[in-house]
């Protein structure tokens, strides 16, 4: 087992990593630990471990680190493990992976796996980006693009709330053209999701499951600050999927087009549209409770 640790959020994360390591070592396993030193590093480390035939590579970090490790493991037989040390940890919440380090470590030690079906976003320059949870374009991606890293480290999840407030009056809400298996929709924002949760434990797409094939596509038809405020208020109440102007469709391949529209994947900035989203060529294994 290799544990890929993102130290970016500081000492608290490291303590939680050590707590997990204590348990894993306590039952006689000797995992290696590799620390990431830059963005994308987790993918390189995971790819190398998969080539060497390592059985499980654990992403010790948040959803961004999980996506990077998953990208490195794609196409291999190495399973993805998760030690949730991030800010929101949406995938861990989604799949019932415990946040407490000792409990998460116990899950890893058990080694029970399930199939995970990631998505891949393709850009016109040939770049491909794998995501395990979601790809959003429009307002929520603008929030992610402009989120100051320091603010997130200082106040955690509150940074997203603050940045959302800042973004509301200035985001342009330029139209996005979404094609879902050929059906065309023009919307203000869109989230192509594998999972049912968003921004923590808030309901976005009832019935979605990263262990299932296909995507749920949440369309936000209404533009402007008032609509963004309504959607933002509905999210923590679990009412977002039922709001006026919100529609959730299912599909297997999704194309997103628009002028200078930002995108985010698994909570990290993911360039600008256009982007074509399809299932990863092969599902992968993930260690689950
Ligand atoms: N050493 C590093 N220095 C700076 N950034 C890093 C480093 N290692 C990894 N990163 C980047 O930090 C990003 C965010 O990390 P991660 O997802 O683990 O935490 P998070 O954003 O706090 O959690 P969540 O996504 O659950 O909110 C990753 O996508 C990764 O690219």
TrEMBL record:
DAGKc domain segment(s): 1-125
Keyword presence, Glycosyltransferase: no
Keywords carried by this UniProt record: ATP-binding, Kinase, Lipid biosynthesis, Lipid metabolism, Magnesium, Metal-binding, Nucleotide-binding, Phospholipid biosynthesis, Phospholipid metabolism, Transferase
PROSITE patterns linked: DAGK (PS50146)
InterPro entries the record matches: ATP-NAD_kinase_N, Diacylglycerol/lipid_kinase, Diacylglycerol_kinase_cat_dom, Lipid_Phosphate_FormReg, NAD/diacylglycerol_kinase_sf, YegS/DAGK_C
Gene3D superfamilies with a match to the protein in the record: 2.60.200.40, Probable inorganic polyphosphate/atp-NAD kinase, domain 1
Domain of life: Bacteria
A GO molecular function held by the record: kinase activity
Pfam families in alphabetical order: DAGK_cat, YegS_C
Cofactor or coenzyme needed: Mg(2+)
NCBIfam families, alphabetized: YegS/Rv2252/BmrU family lipid kinase
Identification of the protein by name: YegS/Rv2252/BmrU family lipid kinase
Phylogenetic lineage: Bacteria, Pseudomonadati, Pseudomonadota, Alphaproteobacteria, Acetobacterales
């Amino acid at each position: 087992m290799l544990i890929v640790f993102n130290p970016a959020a500081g000492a608290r994360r490291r303590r939680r990593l050590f707590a997990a390591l204590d348990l894993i070592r306590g039952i006689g396993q000797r995992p290696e630990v590799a620390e990431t030193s830059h963005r994308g590093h987790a993918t390189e480390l995971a790819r190398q471990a998969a080539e060497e035939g390592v059985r499980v590579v654990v992403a010790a970090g948040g959803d961004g680190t999980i996506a990077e490790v998953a990208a490195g493991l794609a196409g291999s037989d190495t399973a993805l493990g998760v030690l949730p040390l991030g800010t929101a940890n949406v995938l861990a919440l989604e799949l019932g992976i415990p946040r407490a380090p000792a409990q998460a470590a116990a899950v890893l030690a058990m080694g029970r796996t399930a199939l995970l079906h990631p998505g891949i976003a393709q850009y016109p320059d040939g770049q491909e980006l794998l995501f395990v949870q979601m790809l959003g374009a429009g307002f929520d991606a603008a929030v992610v693009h402009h989120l100051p890293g320091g603010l997130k480290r200082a106040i955690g999840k509150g940074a997203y709330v603050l940045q959302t407030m800042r973004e509301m009056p200035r985001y342009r809400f330029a139209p996005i053209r979404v094609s879902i298996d050929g059906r065309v929709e023009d919307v203000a924002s869109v989230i192509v999701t594998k999972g049912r949760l968003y921004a923590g434990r808030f309901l976005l797409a009832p019935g979605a499951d990263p262990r299932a094939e296909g995507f749920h596509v949440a369309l936000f038809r209404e533009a402007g600050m008032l609509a963004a405020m309504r959607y933002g208020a509905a999210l923590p109440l679990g009412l977002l999927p039922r709001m006026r102007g919100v529609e959730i469709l299912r599909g297997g391949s999704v194309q997103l087009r628009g002028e200078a529209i930002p995108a985010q994947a698994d909570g990290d900035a993911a360039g600008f549209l256009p982007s074509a989203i399809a299932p990863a060529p092969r599902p992968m294994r993930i260690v689950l409770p």
